[in-house]
Request: fold
Amino acid sequence: MNSQKRKTVSSKRRAYRVRKSVRGTAAKPRLSVYRSNQHIYAQLIDDETGMTLVSASTNEKGSTEKYGGNAKAALLIGKAIAEKAVAKGIKVAAFDRGHYRFHGRVKALARAATDAGLVCTGPPEAPKEKAEAAPAAPVKKEKKAKA
Reply:
């Protein structure tokens, strides 16, 4: 199996592993994220009916962001999808990261949506406190040479 095919198979397995535990309903739809090199897309999906309730992307006509492949654009899309969802009466969503890690643009989109009123993640993690300096190692005594 060549490397590109192996990457594709691995990403599909990760996506299935995430999706088996995330289901969307009309009351709590699934917030699905797709990111490409140039754009980022998000949509709220009701899996019971198979319908997309709300969507937002950097590629749509009303988008003000010229380049959508960065965290700044992800923040704007997170806010936009949250505003559209709140306007439709949706306040809670199940976050579906797909095969992406919860890091970078995906994390920025989720946090922005939560801050704008669409609860899809928990509260942000508190910064870790620095551990106290380790105690100094005991000094070894030198052996006296026998005369």
In short: The mean pLDDT is 84. Helices lie at 3-19, 71-87, 105-115.
